[in-house]
Amino acid sequence: MASITPPPGWGAAPQPAGSGAWNTQPPQPDVWVYAGFWWRVWAFLIDAVILSTAECILGLFFGPKINVDWEELPIPDASSQTVDVVNIATTSLPHASPVSVLIPHLHAGSEWHTFGIVLSLLPMVYCVMFEASAFRATPGKRLFGMEVVTLEGKQISHLRALLRFVIKAFLSFPLLYIGVLMVAFTQRKQGLHDMMAGTLVLRHTRPAQIAPFSPHT
């Protein structure tokens, strides 16, 4: 009776490397390159320029109208009398001197409060929408090839992106920037907001592969 050679993995003798499709090189582990402190500083500056430009454009088209009201404040002269600006402008006396001033008052109306709230929320909407999208980063980060991902390397949710922004805005920056400076000293280049939100900032869209090599004997 002829012997039957079982397929690989069923007790057959191991075949030499490269002798068949069953002996392809096993996939190498992924290597993640974390975004360092200065890379993130440059990305922050780019995002700040973009946000400032957007705020200026919004202010031109949707900003509240500012009205200026002038109030005259008369000042008593040596004779304890007051002279208003109209009398000073029309008088022909050479010895006449200004004895009143005009005080400007700026009025933006109730629309200013609404516009101020919109401007304060713009950075939050900007960061959350971009980082939680398939883009995985703000334009500044993407310009330098960075991504904001979960600890497993997946796309973050809107809730996680919001949590990350709130911690960064109210803890990492206000507390003497300590939460931001932590990026330069932590093992995975995480700031306080990254640690608390469970996120990483990578400098590669796709993790690089380790190239296999044969060590010299």
Automatic annotation (TrEMBL):
Domain RDD: 34-198
Biased composition regions of type Low complexity, renumbered to the chain: 10-21
Key words of the record: Cell membrane, Membrane, Transmembrane, Transmembrane helix
InterPro entries, per the entry: Pra-immunoreactive, RDD
Region span, Disordered: 1-23
Record flagged with keyword Transmembrane helix: yes
Compartments reported by the entry: Cell membrane
This protein's GO CC annotations: plasma membrane
Transmembrane annotation, as ranges: 37-62, 115-135, 165-186
Lipid bilayer topology: Multi-pass membrane protein
Protein origin, superkingdom: Bacteria
The protein, known as: Putative RDD family membrane protein YckC
Species of origin: Acetobacter lovaniensis
